[in-house]
User: Which sequence fits this backbone?
C-alpha cells in the first residue's frame, strides 16, 4: 500500500501554485502524501513522476513546490540508448546548471549512471541495442531538465523532448534558482 501512496504523491495539479519559502529552514508538514522520508536530511531533493506528469521539489523531506512536466517522445519506460527518445528512470544528481539559448535554463543530470550502463550492457548482450554503422547505438548522455521553445506543447502535456524533462520557462527559472548543483533527482515511471 505504501507504494500506491508514494506513486500518487505530487499528482495534484493545484500544488504548482503553492508559494515557495526558501527562508524557512525546515518546512512544516501538511499531510503524509507530501512527505519524502528518504530526503528528510536533504536541503533539497527533486522527484519526477512521469505517470503524474510532475516535477516536485522537496526541502528536508517536505514537498514545497510542484511543476507540470513533459518528457521524451517515446513515452513510458526507461531510456536505454541514445536516440530511443525516452526519459531515463532512476536516481540522478544535478551536476551542472547553465543558461541555454533555446530552453532558457539547462540543469544537467549525471545520466548515464552505473545502473544505466549495466542495463545498457545487458540489453546489448541480449541483442536489444540497434546497430549504427560499424557499431551499436551508444548509451547516450546530455539528459537534463530544461525550459521550452514549444510552450503550447508543454501546456497541452505533449511529450516532445528527445529524452529530457521540460518545464514551462518561468518554472525552470524558479527551479534553477531554488535547487543547487548536487541536488538528488529521482525519476519514477
Assistant:
Amino acid at each position: 500500500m505504501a507504494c500506491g501512496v508514494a506513486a500518487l504523491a505530487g499528482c495534484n495539479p493545484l500544488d504548482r501554485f503553492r508559494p515557495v519559502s526558501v527562508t524557512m529552514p525546515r518546512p512544516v508538514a501538511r499531510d503524509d502524501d507530501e512527505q519524502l522520508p528518504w530526503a528528510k536530511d536533504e536541503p533539497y531533493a527533486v522527484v519526477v513522476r512521469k505517470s503524474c506528469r510532475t516535477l516536485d521539489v522537496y526541502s528536508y523531506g517536505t514537498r514545497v513546490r510542484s511543476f507540470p512536466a513533459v518528457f521524451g517522445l517515446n513515452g513510458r519506460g526507461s531510456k536505454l540508448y541514445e536516440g530511443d527518445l525516452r526519459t531515463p528512470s532512476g536516481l540522478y544528481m544535478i551536476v551542472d546548471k547553465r543558461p541555454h539559448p533555446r530552453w532558457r535554463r539547462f540543469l544537467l543530470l549525471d545520466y548515464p549512471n552505473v545502473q544505466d550502463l549495466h542495463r545498457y550492457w545487458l540489453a546489448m548482450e541480449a541483442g536489444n541495442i540497434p546497430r549504427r554503422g560499424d557499431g551499436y547505438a551508444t548509451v547516450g548522455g546530455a539528459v537534463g531538465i530544461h525550459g521550452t521553445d514549444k510552450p503550447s506543447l508543454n501546456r497541452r502535456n505533449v511529450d516532445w523532448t528527445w529524452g529530457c524533462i521540460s518545464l514551462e520557462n518561468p518554472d525552470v527559472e524558479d527551479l534553477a534558482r531554488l535547487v543547487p548543483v548536487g541536488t538528488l533527482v529521482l525519476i519514477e515511471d
Observations:
- The chain is about 20% helix and 25% strand.
- The CA atoms of residues 58 and 64 lie 5 Å apart.
- The longest helix spans residues 114-125.
